[in-house]
Amino acid sequence: MLDRKILGEVLDTALKRGGDFADIFIEKRVTTLVACEENRIERIKSGLDIGAGIRVLYGDTTAYAYTNKITKEELTNLADIVSRAAKHGGGEIKVNLQKIAPDTKPMAEILPTEVSIDDKVAVVETVNKAARAVDARIKQVMVVYGDVVQDVTIANSLGRWVEDQRVRTRLAVNAIAADGEQIQTGFESVGATQGFELMRNYDCAGLGQAAANRAIAMLEAKPAPAGKMAVVMAGEAGGTMVHEACGHGLEADLVQKGMSVYAGRKGEMVASELVTVVDDGTIPGKYGTLRFDDEGFPAQKTTLIEKGILKNYMYDYLTATRDKVTPTGNGRRESFEHKPIPRMRNTYIAPGKDDPDSIIKSIKNGLLVRKMGGGQVNTVNGDFVFDVAEGYLIKDGEIAHAVRGATLTGNGPQVLQMVDMVGSDLGFTIGTCGKDGQGAPVSDAQPTIRIPEIVVGGTAHEAAAGPRLRRGEQGAASPVSWRIRRL
């Protein structure tokens, strides 16, 4: 977008009054959204966003400003503004930028920008039709297709200069079933760092059918029982548990602020020896994958917990500098309008050695979680409450009838310490994770795991589960992370 000489001069200006570090993030983002509701296409939206953000770090001070004008004059003026964060005065700075070439293999085989809107509408209509055909009790279906092609230029005062293209495509469906006064929903989504080939190669109609079948299954389900019981979380349930109850607490900014239950615990046993937790930005095609983070550092595979022992946190440049460690490639931002912060990418519990079916057979009485819903977690103490979108009772090692209205209430570190069987499978889900007012595309995963005892809320939920965290009651000192899945 801008050549090396201009980028270097802008960074020089940003540091002319001193400062410890400066960077510039420039992006051109092309997006498309197609939404179907009420059995018709309700919205078709496309957009082009172009802008740049410039940041200066000086001690514990961060100055950040952004603009929609990508000109040398505008960026130089912006750099002069943020340079005022440095108080001690500076000198002549000459940043020596060295271009770091990304993997030459493109993320997309078929760029979404080269696909007609009619083809995208056809995908949405196919999903809508398939979901509605499942059962007459499917009363409403909402389908959303979205894609983004993001071209970025990132340069910083360490001399790193990156130009890269990121492509993401996603499809989500929410089916609503009703029978009398009973209403249930079923949600399914697919997304990847791929182009429109994802839609060509994926069974899009099957996605709609799966969502509708879940809604019908929950419509016919019996109310969930309440109390303490064994829980098997299937691999297909995805990694909402590890993302919320564990992942956010391992982001270095929360750790350094003392707002994480994992603060100061490197080297300690924080989970069962069967549990290894990884955040990996390099897995081909996954929704949270990137070649470089939004500070220009390479994505990498970071082992956070290894055989139960806390090994590492997720760092951006600022938090890594404070801890005198190397950034892990977790500096991410929603757009040029936001400064980077430590964020997850593809976070998962590593597969174990147990056969998933044998884990279910080992349970005399318990709950099988096939799909997780939304929830909340207090990162300070690890307490969480999660909804179960699809669950089944287990009786004498066999899957019995479906149950609805179940919730899981517990403490993340305690639950991870109790895990006593870990399956050899691994199931991913996608989402948009919200933190500090920013959304970031992520995926998370887990194998089938057995938790010997956890509080399940159901028909006697309030009596059995005890106090439940509710939105607005957590207080300023108790940050709660919400799992956000945008249609």
From TrEMBL:
Q: Where is the Metalloprotease TldD/E N-terminal domain?
A: 22-85
* Occurrences of domain Metalloprotease TldD/E C-terminal (ranges): 227-458
Tree of life domain? Bacteria
Pfam families documented for this protein: PmbA_TldD_1st (PF01523), PmbA_TldD_2nd (PF19290), PmbA_TldD_3rd (PF19289)
Q: Name one GO molecular function term.
A: metallopeptidase activity
One GO CC annotation: cytosol
**The entry's keywords:** Hydrolase, Metalloprotease, Protease
**What biological process terms from GO does the record include?**
proteolysis
- Domain Metalloprotease TldD/E central stretches: 112-219
Q: Does the keyword Ribonucleoprotein apply?
A: no
Q: Which InterPro entries match?
A: Metalloprtase-TldD/E_C, Metalloprtase-TldD/E_cen_dom, Metalloprtase-TldD/E_N, Peptidase_U62_metallo, TldD, TldD/PmbA_N, TldD/PmbA_sf
The record, for PANTHER family, names: METALLOPROTEASE TLDD (PTHR30624:SF4), UNCHARACTERIZED PROTEIN TLDD AND PMBA (PTHR30624)
Q: Which family does it belong to?
A: Belongs to the peptidase U62 family.
Name listed for the protein in its UniProt record: TldD protein
